[in-house]
């Protein structure tokens, strides 16, 4: 997951001596009794720095700057007052001044914080048999992770998860569940939505793990309506710098019917260091709620038009990750499936016929009732890329009767993870 000229994290890089390799199974943290042991001494990396505000009492909202237990080296990136203004979300600490960290050490500290919680769920990668007849790639696959992680302000202040205990949403622990999930699957490219702790958590930590990080907040984030919020939420894109070089980056504010909207996208063209091949990766989060189907459709068309220009009409292979807030029956889904960019949805390949989306990617219970929908997708250029494997979804039994989020899963959306390879020899317009 991380490789540095100064220090190699041997536990993550060692497989067959050929560089970056993943551990078998679902990754580093697996299910088991590891959280039943008493906690070790206070972790060095995840405890608050001297002078940082202490967590509030259980009766107070554990949200905002003053309540997050930050890395000691990173606490100074934010002010400690929960009610402080948020100009800092426009700034980013210089990664050159942050020491690299060992992902195994970070994982151990996450586990220490989570020792009283149930173990994380076992999820397996499913090989896609349809690619077995293709010429195998001579380069390691590219692992892409898509995840709406649930903005902290929305989870505590707006989303009304009536079956989720308030303690399960405490940021001090929920952030460790999110990090544990990321560390488990070790993505080369990570696409997140509803990120409202970018500058105090994800950018400082992931940059020290070797990722280049980009964040684009929503212009009018609903998080800002919540007391003691941590700034606006938005989309974030991360890629490992030892695998890719950034060629071009575009921040896109989506339009609908010529009107600028509150939804955004990031599109970055990357060059694979092993193969020299280029790849465009985009992350987005479309408008939510029933009744906004035409609005989402217009946003999707605008994004496709932007990507058509960025990829020069699909000359550059494309991966689009996002929470589309749209079932496969919606028009915006059909726009992507029939686009001239020749896109296909990766998770269809897990179905028996290879044509059906999963039955759900989000499952929650709100005051308005139970919501079980397929809203999250990883689209890819099927003429240029092959899906080697995909991470299976949680079962209904694993999710449990209270649905998501929960004490052992931090978001109301499931993470999607796929391994891709460039097709060899190049096909189509490449």
Explained architecture:
The chain has 430 residues and is of the alpha+beta class. The chain is built from eight helices and 15 strands. It has helices spanning 10-13, 103-113, 152-157, 171-185, 198-208, 293-310, 331-337, 396-399; strands at 125-127, 142-148, 189-195, 211-217, 234-240, 244-256, 259-272, 278-285, 318-323, 343-345, 362-366, 369-373, 376-381, 385-391, 416-422. The strands form three sheets. Strands 1-14-15-2-3-5-4 form a seven-stranded mixed β-sheet, covered by helices on one side. It has a six-stranded mixed β-sheet with strand order 6-7-8-9-13-10, with helices on one face. Helix 2 (103-113) runs antiparallel to helix 4 (171-185) and helix 6 packs parallel to helix 7. It is globular. The protein starts with 9 loop residues before the first helix and ends in an 8-residue tail after the last strand. The relative contact order is 0.15. The model is unreliable at 1-34, 40-44 and 47-91 (pLDDT under 50).
The major pleated sheet works out as: 7 strands, mixed
Shape: globular
Tally of DSSP helical segments: 8
Which strand order does the major sheet show?
1-14-15-2-3-5-4
Round the Cα radius of gyration to an integer and report it.
21 Å
Order of helices and strands: HHEEHHEHEEEEEHEHEEEEEHE
Proportion of beta-strand residues: 15-25%
Distance N to C terminus:
29 Å
Helix content: 10-25%
Q: What's the total count of β strands?
A: 15
* pLDDT < 50 stretches: 1-34, 40-44, 47-91
* Structural class estimated from helices and strands: alpha+beta
> What's the mean pLDDT score?
82
